[in-house]
UniProtKB/TrEMBL annotation:
UniProt-recorded name of the protein: Protein kinase domain-containing protein
PROSITE patterns, sorted: PROTEIN_KINASE_DOM (PS50011), PROTEIN_KINASE_ST (PS00108)
Alphabetical UniProt keywords: ATP-binding, Nucleotide-binding
Entry-linked InterPro entries: Kinase-like_dom_sf, MAPK, Prot_kinase_dom, Ser/Thr_kinase_AS
Length: 477
């Protein structure tokens, strides 16, 4: 067994044990983060992915164990993939990062993602029958939506290939943002980026002078591959890759080569003029719109290449973007209805509170005037004021629970109607009411042995003790 093979096997074992170490470390610190390792899912240049299960929820996840070590939590937070996913999430076609596991003593890092069923390469691998054209269209539409979202947020992927496109049934999500870059970063970028077969000409021929248009070249290569079930430009090295591109697409306008020469030192750009065989010959049986979109994605000059936003409005996707537009219009209308409803509710509550405040201010002075007036009248008449105070206060309290100004006016008018009238200059004479004979009694007083004092007796006494109602009953009876 060679030394390199031994090293690879030792590294795989160490990496697997590291994930176990991470799980144990997190288990002791937080019981929410517990994972059982199920098996290895895949491996890349900088990481390997292990299928795991959460002890807490029972859900399966994909733990991406990074091969590099990190010295501090600040270095982890500045990791390009973590920053990009935080900025791009949540999105229906971007892989979801659940949590970050960092073991500070060992410097090892693991990223916990949602688990997808398979990648796009696994989906087409070994197939003899081509995919359904509608499924191809759906996959490409979803992929372009994820790339458009990414570019709108100032990030480009730099490694578009079938292995980085994940599937759950027919739902697609873009993953592996370890190579992503900011669109507004300063040139030049890393030269040897992206997988060779999906690498754009500007990446192959310049010293890192490329931009987000390289992602659209990768999309064109992926689209061709899932239709034809074989790669379009399977170059064995960089020069062979360029030659394969020229064999099919032909050489570009000499001005494009002139621009590339100014930005290239590692390769001499001196290719003979060549007419390519064309993509149409390789895609027989496909619609004109499908071939046209692939040709626009694989334009040699990046400045003339279609954008993700324009690609989503291509005739090839007409039925999909029209359905999207209808759904968005419905959602927008529904959202406006909700907003207007809540706004109306807020306005009604505000108007109600203002009306109540206005009602208080309107009735308070009148109430005070009325109270003072009747208080003076009652003092003159000798009647108690407590009875009036209770009536007026209860009426005023009832007016606070009405919403409209009309109701408040009605309550104020009712309040004035319910106040007792006090007739001045009218003396009370019980002799006139009950008659002189009934009012007087031969025994006005009676001695009570228990009380030890004289007690009032007769109609006059009954009126004094029991009131007018009792006397009326006695007289009528």
């Amino acid at each position: 067994m060679s030394l390199i093979t031994k090293f690879i096997k030792i590294w795989n074992i160490e990496s697997f044990l590291f994930c176990q170490l991470i799980v144990k470390y997190k288990r002791t610190k937080n019981q929410m983060n517990q994972y059982k390792l199920v098996g290895k899912k895949g491996e890349g240049t900088f990481s390997e992915v292990i299928k795991s299960q959460s002890f807490k929820t029972g859900n399966y996840v994909a733990i991406k164990c990074m091969k590099n070590k990190f010295t501090s939590i600040e270095q982890v937070n500045h990791l390009r993939e973590i920053q990009a996913l935080r900025k791009l999430s949540p999105h229906e076609h971007i892989i979801k990062l659940i949590e970050v596991l960092y073991d500070e003593p060992t410097g090892r890092l693991a990223l916990v993602f949602e688990l997808m069923e398979q990648n796009l390469y696994e989906h087409i691998k070994g197939r003899r029958q081509p995919l359904n054209p509608q499924k191809v269209k759906s996959f490409m539409y979803q992929l372009l939506k994820s790339i458009d979202h990414m570019h709108r947020n100032g990030i480009f992927h730099r490694d578009i290939k079938p292995e980085n496109i994940l599937l759950n049934s027919d739902h697609l999500k873009l993953a592996d943002f370890g190579s992503c870059k900011g669109i507004y970063s300063k040139h030049p970028y890393t030269e040897y980026i992206s997988t060779r077969w999906y690498r754009a000409p500007e990446c192959l021929l310049t010293d890192g002078y490329y931009d987000q248009k390289m992602d659209l070249w990768g999309v064109g290569c992926v689209m061709f591959e899932i239709i034809a079930l074989f790669p379009l430009f399977p170059g064995t090295n960089e020069l062979d890759q360029v030659n394969k591109i020229h064999n099919i697409l032909g050489t570009p306008n000499p001005k494009v080569f002139d621009r590339f020469r100014k930005q290239a030192t590692h390769m001499e750009i001196n290719f003979p003029n060549k007419h390519g065989t064309g993509i149409e010959r390789l895609l027989q049986g496909q619609t004109k719109e499908c071939i046209d979109l692939i040709k626009m994605l694989l334009v040699y000059d990046p400045e003339e290449r279609i954008t993700a936003q324009s690609a989503l409005r291509h005739e090839y996707f007409r039925e999909l973007y029209e359905a999207d537009a209808t759904q968005k219009s419905f959602q927008h209308t529904l959202q406006n209805i909700k907003i207007s409803y809540h706004r109306e509710q807020n306005d009604n509550s505000l108007e109600r509170s203002q009306r109540i405040d206005e009602g208080k201010q309107m009735h308070q002075p009148n109430f005070k005037k009325t109270q003072n007036y009747y208080a003076k009248s009652q003092k003159k008449s000798g009647l108690p004021s407590l009875q009036f105070d209770l009536k007026v206060e209860s009426i005023y309290k009832n007016t606070q629970h009405h919403d409209s100004d009309d109701d408040l006016d009605k309550q104020s008018s009712n309040k004035q109607m319910m106040l007792p009238e006090i007739k001045k200059k009218k003396k009370y004479d019980p002799k006139i009411i009950y008659g002189k004979q009934q009012y007087q009694s031969s025994q006005a007083y009676q001695f009570n042995s228990k009380a030890g004092k004289k007690m009032a007796h007769g109609l006059q006494a009954d009126y004094i003790v029991y009131g007018k109602k009792a006397v009326n009953q006695q007289v009528l009876g």
